[in-house]
User: What shape does this take?
Amino acid sequence: MITRLTPELLAPAGSLDAVRAAVANGADAVYLGAARYNARDEGAQLTLEEVEEACRVAHARQRRIYLAFNILLKPSELGDALVFLGEAIDRGVDAAIVQDLGLVRLIQRVYPAFEIHGSTQMTVHDVSGARVMQRLGVERVVLARENTLDDIRAIRAAVPQLGLETFVHGALCISFSGQCFMSGMISERSANRGSCAQSCRKDYVLTDVTSSTELDRGYLISAKDLAALDHLQAITEAGVGCLKVEGRKKRPEYVATVTSGYRGFLDRIARGEQVTPTEAEAQPLVQIYSRGFTGGMYGGRVGRDYITRSQPDNRGTPIGRVVSRQRDEIVVEVTAPVVPGDGLGFEAPEGRGGPTEGFTVDAVRTVGTHPALRLAIRPRSGQAHGVAAGWRVSRTSDAGLLERARASYAALPATVRARKTRLDVRLFGSAGGAMRGVFEADGETVAVFTEAQLAPASKRALDATVLREQLGRLGDTPFALAALDLSGLDAGLFLPVSALNHLRQQAVEELLRRRDWARAARLAERRIVVDEAVASPSRTPAAASPARFELSAQVFDAAQARAAADAGATEVCYDPFLRHPAPPRARVQQLAAELLGRGVAFRLRTPTIVRPSERPQVQKWLDLGLPILTGHIGLLMELAAAGRDVVGDYALNCFNEHTAGELFALGARRLVPSIELTAEEMAQVAAPHGTSAFDVFVYGRPEGMTIEHCVLSAAFERKATTCRDLCVQKHTNVELTDPAGYVFPVATDSACRNRLLHSRPVDGSEYLPTLWKAGFRSFRLVFNVVNDPVAEVTGAFRTALEALHAGGRPDLQAVRGILGGAFTRGHFARAV
Assistant: This one.
């Protein structure tokens, strides 16, 4: 029989019961979040005491525990975060999953032997990004969910020493992880800070701006759940070292069912079987929780079937339709039995839409069996009033499946006794004197004496059996009696049991006191090391301050570029990839020469996402030799190493001074701080490096989501990348409108990827005096929508900066006058 190495199976846990469920059902490792600093801010966190218990449960069975430590950290949070991580390490976690670049380096300095995994929030999706991870020294990286099998093979071949991890099951973010700013802009709940507001799970209307024609409606950016069942064989053969299940907020029964299913599939692969799970084998995964399944993008883009469309929640298993309502019962025709305790969901007929309804079944009776099983179901009081004949029925919860799932981990102890510390004892004494005991544990030695005097024994003398029995009564203390040395104790002596107990108690109290002192000393020493590390970010020579100021205007066509230059921009940053198709390179070269001839600098903006198959086309633009603005960390390192002038864009998520230091070390000339920072926080990030090394995003619509899925091709049931007529000819300007009426422009870029732009431009003009006072002199304007007021806004910012340079007071209402009320202050004074 052929035996193959299989990847590690990594299961989620949001509770101790979920840890038990994962371990009992075959997970090789479990990832979880503790009370702070992880990307699930509510309902899926363990206390540190529970983390310790989870580690004991897992380690008793040779499984591992990984701590999700995967949010961006502000300068003020770094010290406490590192101390908190130390507490988790003390409790036994085996590795941390980290998003923040600066935090990676800090962990390596403070806890040099500790294992670090790069989070999928790092947006690593190609060879150059993987090389950055290897340079950083992380042991493995969680690849973007959008990567195809060919992408993974290319990364594996180029960076064979780097461990690769990929998701195979669970909820999917529609945006590339780490590149969703929409939640924070709308609600102050940053997806990069563990507070995602689930903006993608709303219903939207897709509209052609030019004609006002409605093109599509529904849950258009709500992805189905991932179930990579058909790709498991190929994923394991591609060199992936870990398969990850999403679901830290799911119930333990979900963890048990999904882990058990994938364990079985992987074990069959290990035996050399060709595994393509059947519908029956996949059914428990569908039933336990599913928004509808997609195989993901391992085989390429999926198109319309990637999205839930009709509703964003658990769909369960379709089993029939509603026939009628009879008083307090709903009569249904179903293809499978229903029992009390099952959960049922009801959807209105196709085309009608509206919210789903559901309930837990209270009672069932059979109405008929031919030609189909017909049941009368009684819901619990006051539920499902809107359900009528014709509605579709799904079983959203299977009572039997839940019971089997609970039974699978019921035998696994909820707690595991902590391993006790060895306690060695030496006893000394002779008749007429006190007994002296020397107790040694954890490198500490204490000596204690009895108050009672040793006396010749009239009956039973002290011996090893009596002494071990009395001194070994250590109960709930962290000690266990090991060696007992009586060579210093004369034979034939007697001492009351109470005196022996008191001797033991004295020793234990003193050892515990010393243990507490030692722990306090270790923590104090750790805090000193942490504070020293946080206070000393890596620094690079500060960029030269501009003589006056720099005002860069980011545009996507030549007319905008000339308008910005005419209005006073000192630099034009051209994004040729924003809208499909990219313009001719020769034309952009001519534009660059024209503007340079006028004394206006010219810079090229790259896509944030460049999958391996797209690199050849992007390379042709890179070969023009122009200065670069990029949010792609791999391109930043690669181009800077070749001596290019590279500015790091906001998509790099520069959230603290240590991340800035790492990005400068990779070669960035300047950086755009995260758009999710306040003005004060930006100043804190810049302070150690000099504000001249930073450009502030002061105007424009951030790319709220970067989406591999194309809403326009899906609306027409076309295959993305082969429907150029839609975005280039028929519907060149489209937008999504949410239930509150906010409108989000959609740019289909040169790789047929959607960039969902914010509903309103950020206007930071009122914060210019604050930023100027902090020392910032370089500012960025972004124009990425058709008919953006490029000249007017650029001119207003130029005038304001001239006034500040001259020591005057700028007109802070000028930009507002241009925009009317259609703007947002962004995060300049609104922290996430």
